[in-house]
């Protein structure tokens, strides 16, 4: 049993004092973001390999269409933080609260234009996302 604990099994929540991943997220929308319309943004923490691989293949449009089903298909493997922002809105250093056993973190922005509008967030504790007219820019 102790071998399992040391060989890569999930960390029990009571041992997870300092989980890795994005802890603070700043979101900045420009005046002409998403053709002057509100935009949905999801920060998605994933704690298992299979959903991380599947979700990593999705563009933002497909992700937002399938989000409810993905949460049902992978209960406990996904944690989602969501915002809906108007043009020229600022969310400054929002607490992201990443989970233990983090495998991957994605950010999706639901633009009306074509494109993936997805970013993979690796290792940074604080991230700034600028939502421009047609796509997002991430500073880690």
Question: What does this protein look like?
Answer:
The protein has one domain (22-139): Immunoglobulin-like (Sandwich). The protein contains 3 helices and 8 strands; from the N terminus they run H-E-E-H-H-E-E-E-E-E-E. It is an alpha+beta fold and 140 residues long. 26% of the residues are buried. It has helices at residues 2-6, 49-56, 60-73, and strands at 24-29, 39-46, 78-85, 90-95, 104-109, 118-120, 126-131, 136-139.
Name some characteristics of this structure:
single chain, about 140 residues, alpha+beta, Immunoglobulin-like, 4-stranded mixed beta sheet, 4-stranded antiparallel beta sheet, 3 helices, 8 strands, about 20% helix, globular, disordered N terminus
Number of helices: 3
The general outline is globular
How many angstroms does the end-to-end distance come to?
39 Å
Q: What is the string of helix and strand elements?
A: HEEHHEEEEEE
Query: Low-confidence parts lasting 5 or more residues at pLDDT below 50?
Result: 1-8
CATH homologous group name? Type VI secretion system, lipoprotein SciN
CATH architecture: Sandwich
Taken as a percent bin, the fraction of beta residues is 25-35%
Using only C-alpha atoms, the radius of gyration works out to 16 Å
CATH top-level class: Mainly Beta
* Number of beta strands: 8
CATH domain topology: Immunoglobulin-like
Helix/strand structural class? alpha+beta
Major sheet summary line: 4 strands, mixed
């Amino acid at each position: 049993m102790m071998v399992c604990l040391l060989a890569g099994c999930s960390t029990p929540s009571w041992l997870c004092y300092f989980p890795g991943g994005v802890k603070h997220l700043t979101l900045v929308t420009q005046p002409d973001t998403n053709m002057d319309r509100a935009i949905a943004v999801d920060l998605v923490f994933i704690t298992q390999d299979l959903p991380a691989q599947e979700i990593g293949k999705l563009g933002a449009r497909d992700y937002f269409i399938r989000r409810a089903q993905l949460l049902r298909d992978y209960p406990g493997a996904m944690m989602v933080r969501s915002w809906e922002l108007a043009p020229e809105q600022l969310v400054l250093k929002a607490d992201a609260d990443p989970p233990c056993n983090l495998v991957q973190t994605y950010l999706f922005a639901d633009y009306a234009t074509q494109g993936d509008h997805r970013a993979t967030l690796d290792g940074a504790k604080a991230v700034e996302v600028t939502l421009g007219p047609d796509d997002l820019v991430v500073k880690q």
